[in-house]
Design a protein that fits this description.
single chain; ABC transporter involved in vitamin B12 uptake, BtuC; two-stranded antiparallel ribbon; 1% strand
Length: 330
């Protein structure tokens, strides 16, 4: 009997070639292999790329766009888009800078995060409840937010940020700076929510087929609004960590941040049509974005050309995603 059981197990076990095919079919594995390839290539292009100082710099540069990309992942999974994240980050940073002298650091930070969430709530209601196009609503919110940045700040930077915020950002947790630790914790929470809760599964269902999700009795409107609230709140969190790094807030802070966030999510393998994507893929996409920009800086490439490179990467990622989708449909 034992011999027959062993034979059955051996027959069911996948041969090495099938295991390799299964692994490479996984989105996260493909993105990780791409990230490793880029890292190896850049290490040959610049001897400074894999130094300890530069690796820590890469992690530090990943924090702001990485946190915003979490919210963008939630939004894109539903088939939406949020073009206002950069303006929301700038506006909530200005609000924080204005209220922190009188309210203190903890309350001021809470006010900024709540304001970010409320802005996302307004966008989400207009999009999900009233049926307006996400592109139009968030584009309008981007314009309003950027305008309010200049109105509230008077067009100048606010530099009365408490030094305790900087101390918090650079406090070490097991040799990891606090801002990087916050980034990793937020990704862990997002991973658990999207993968192991009813809300996460509902977000995927809305992106795949909203009508089918509604027919199945899911709260489509509520869970379609939630991603915009998360996106707005996390934009505020990124603004706070950025303010802690430079001890000032500027009305131009977060400019074009939406481009980097969308690029990271798309490079991470998410579909702009919704229903497909991975928070781990987004994290890898963030690292790919930051590595490319950092490598171009180390190689002395002009910042003006870096925008062209990032734009080309976005187009290429969307093209590959479309080709993979067509191949999967067949």
């Amino acid at each position: 009997m034992a011999a027959n059981e062993m034979i059955g197990i051996a027959r069911q076990a996948k041969p090495p070639r099938q295991w390799l095919k299964w692994l490479t079919a996984r989105l996260e594995v493909r993105m990780l292999l791409l990230a490793i390839l880029i890292a190896v290539t850049l290490s040959f292009a610049s001897p400074y790329f894999l130094t300890t100082i530069n690796v820590l710099n890469l992690l530090d540069q990943s924090v702001v766009v990485g946190i915003v990309a979490i919210g963008m992942t939630f939004v894109i999974l539903t088939g939406g888009i949020d073009l206002s994240v950069g303006a929301v980050a700038g506006l909530t940073g200005i609000i924080f800078g204005l209220v922190v002298p009188s309210l203190g650091l903890p309350v001021g930070a809470l006010v900024a995060i709540v304001c970010g969430g409320l802005i996302g709530l307004v966008s989400g209601v207009l999009i999900s409840y009233f049926g307006l196009a996400a592109f139009v609503v968030t584009l309008g919110m981007m314009s309003i937010g950027r305008s309010l940045c200049y109105i509230f700040s008077g067009g100048i930077s606010i530099s009365n940020i408490p030094e305790t915020l900087s101390d918090f950002v650079y406090t070490k947790v097991a040799f990891i700076p606090m801002n990087v630790f916050v980034l990793l914790v937020l990704y862990l929470l997002a991973y658990l929510y999207l993968g192991y809760t009813k809300g996460g599964r509902t977000i995927y269902a809305i992106g795949s087929n909203a009508e089918a999700a509604r027919t199945a009795g899911l709260n489509v409107v509520g869970y379609a609004i939630l991603p915009y609230v998360v996106s707005g709140a996390l934009s505020a969190v990124s603004a706070l960590l950025l303010a802690g790094k430079i001890l000032s807030v500027d009305p131009l802070a977060g400019n074009l941040l939406e481009l980097d966030a969308i690029a990271a999510v798309v490079i991470g393998g998410a579909s702009l049509f919704g229903g497909r994507g991975s928070i781990i893929g987004t994290l890898i996409g963030v690292f790919i974005m930051v590595m490319i920009r950092n490598g171009l800086n180390l190689m002395g490439v002009s910042p003006f050309w870096q925008g062209s490179a990032i734009g080309a990467i976005i187009i290429a990622a969307v093209l590959v995603e479309r080709l993979v989708s067509r191949r999967g449909a067949r």
